[in-house]
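Obj: model holo form, ligand = nicotinamide-adenine-dinucleotide.
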Amino acid sequence: MSTIPTVKLLIAGEFVESRSAEWRNVINPATQEILARVPMATAEEVDAAVTAGKRAFKTWRHTPIGTRARIFLKYQQLIREHIKEVAAILTAEQGKTLADAEGDIFRGLEVVEHAANIGNLQMGEIANNVATGVDTYTVQQPLGVCAGITPFNFPAMIPLWMFPMAIACGNTFILKPSEQDPMSTMRLVELAIEAGIPPGVLNVVHGGEDVVNAICDHADIKAVSFVGSTRVGTHVYHRASQAGKRVQCMMGAKNHAVVLPDAHKEQTLNNLVGAAFGAAGQRCMAVSVAVLVGEAQAWIPELVERARKLTVGNGALPGTDVGPVISCAAKERVEDLIARGETEGARLELDGRLPSLAGASSEGNFIGPTIFSGVKPGMALYEQEIFGPVLCIAGAASLDEAIAMTNANPNGNGTALFTQSGAAARRFQEEIDVGQVGINVPIPVPVPLFSFTGSRASKLGDLGPYGKQVVLFYTQTKTITERWFDDSSVSTGVNTTISLR
Ligand code: NAD
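Output (holo structure tokens):
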């Protein structure tokens, strides 16, 4: 009998073994060690999770604000206490360094802290005397069973973008984590249950395409939140919308950092290297294109030298800067794109294939920092989201040319401008058509006082995850207009017009 642990489903408050005949391995990308087996849940199991969510909603929707808030206060404390333990699981299954894994959890923890403040966030509006003796007010009521589908690259932060805010608003939830690294997500789910989330309020099913399609189609799921690639997100958006659901999809990216020659050179080069190669480039907000304007193009040799100094290896080992990419298939894909870049005429300034490894297994999916200059629209390197440690450098003669290039790219997830000029910064933030804009900030992911945004091909749906927008996403606004009569009220007689008098 196999001694490899299995990843459980969570249905109606119980962690249960799937009856599926279809399983896949969860693999440590730094060593190829099999860590666990994860099931592709059956249609009946998805249905059982939704039924549990539907049943729990009947009581959870009426749970007082304070009770909901206190669960998330407890939850944030439990996450803090277990952050190192969860980070170790995350690094083993995902590959990023331990420090970055803690960052992944911390950015999710901030959303949990925000969910603990639900009382202030889920408030309606009131207008007094909209007509004589008539008041109108709104309430933000939960929708019912909501679902979340998450990608492999942030197995802590992105599930925590979703279920805490949905549940804090009074919904119940079905989470479908990435099948590539579900173990750290499941540890966070266990802690959520320990914090007091009642049976059926949070459920988890594992799987791939079939489970995602079942979620999109299920008549009892009211809203779907998706984070992942543009191809899958576009499919989810259309399929779930067609089934009458509210849908938000946060998708792929090609983030351009524009560098003006007046930028602070030292800070800019360090920021570019960190944002391009951190997490092995597997962040939706990674800088994947640097547009060097005018004389900033002379900085390429220094940029290359800084990138060359990064240590590639197992993220669990101290001193590692760049861990492996998630799978053998991802490694092959990135290496193919590097080879294509060479044949398409870009200049390979730094080749990360066959990197020297600091004490790590050569079996791991390692690619070192890779830099191309002379990258142009039309090249596969530029057109595709590489999602690996590859930085494309393009040149531009002016800020306007750099803005035009960024806006012509189909993606609009994140961007950054490096400059010392306030006027240039203002022009950039006005003209750029990208959701998240950093001014001398390379990865401008907003804290939960704001919402995660995104434009054009990077996002479908109007409302973003967390912050104020997600409260609107996970609630239905109801408008109540009321009048009360007492004996002193003057009868106005029968009124057949629409006006309120
Ligand atoms: P992915 O699209 O392959 O997978 C995302 C989810 O969809 C997973 O849960 C997966 O099981 C499921 N899925 C995969 N193939 C499917 C199919 N054919 N039909 C239905 N469901 C399917 O994405 P990934 O590789 O896990 O994550 C990387 C991608 O996510 C990158 O494109 C990255 O830019 C994007 N991302 C975007 C954001 C953002 O906020 N914009 C954040 C993180 C990641």
